[in-house]
Amino acid sequence: MTDVETTGAWLSREDLDNARDRLPILYVHAIPVRADDKGVVTHLGLLLRADSDGGIGQEVVGGRVLYHEKVRDALMRHIETDLGPVALPRIPLSPQPFTVAEFFPTPGVTPFHDPRQHAVSLAFVVTVMGDCRPQKDALDLSWVTPEEAAAIALGPEMSGSHGVLVRQALAHVGYPV
Asked: Distance between CA atoms of 155 and 90, rounded to whole angstroms?
């Protein structure tokens, strides 16, 4: 079997690293939320993960859009991968991102930085209705109030880029940040 067949990806690790050096890569990010009966966001879900440097921090759901994959399908896949198969996300019929985040390997070009690559992310607020349990490389999942999320997004426990996404999501759903 090739690297592609064993990983299920459309690029081998070497080819992906080469592409990251030359092309912007498309990502999706999802801010999982719980909402009351009136649609008011009551809690945001934040993942606890270890990073490649051995640090631990909070992040939002997200990952690459695969070749020939619809954005809706990528959102569903990443939510299931990070939150479990019974998260029951409610993706709108016509999903519209609350922001388009441009990640650059050079710090300071935008508020979003990814030292590995130039990436473009479509970011969504997604209501989840089911039982969410951290999966794969997620160590824990915390449900926090919008006020707590705003404080965490400004603190050292959340990477700068994910903190910016959380603050933008909060503003999008009507919370002052």
From this structure: 29
What separation in angstroms does the CA of 110 have from each of 22, 89, 153? 19, 30, 17
Q: Per-residue confidence at 5, pLDDT binned at 50, 70, 90?
A: very low
Q: What is the 3-state secondary structure (H, E, C) of the chain?
A: CCHHHHHCCCCCHHHHHHHHHHCCEEEEEEEEEEECCCCCEEEEEEEEEECCCCCEEEECEEEECCCCCCHHHHHHHHHHHHHCCCCCEECCCCCCCCEEEEEECCCCCCCCECCCCCEEEEEEEEEECCCCCCCCCEEEEEEECHHHHHHHHHCCCECHHHHHHHHHHHHHCCCCC
Are β-strands 119-128 and 89-90 bridged in parallel, bridged antiparallel, or unpaired?
A: antiparallel
Q: pLDDT tens-digit profile of 30-48? A: 999 999 999 999 999 999 9
CA angle at 16 for the pair 60 and 134, rounded to the nearest 5°: 25
Which long-range contacts (C-beta less than 8 Å, at least 24 apart) are formed by 15-20?
A: 20/116, 20/117, 20/118
Tokens in use for 32? 């999982």
Residue 33 burial class via C-beta count within 10 angstroms: exposed 0-12, middle 13-18, buried 19 and up: buried
| 37 CA to centre of own chain | 25
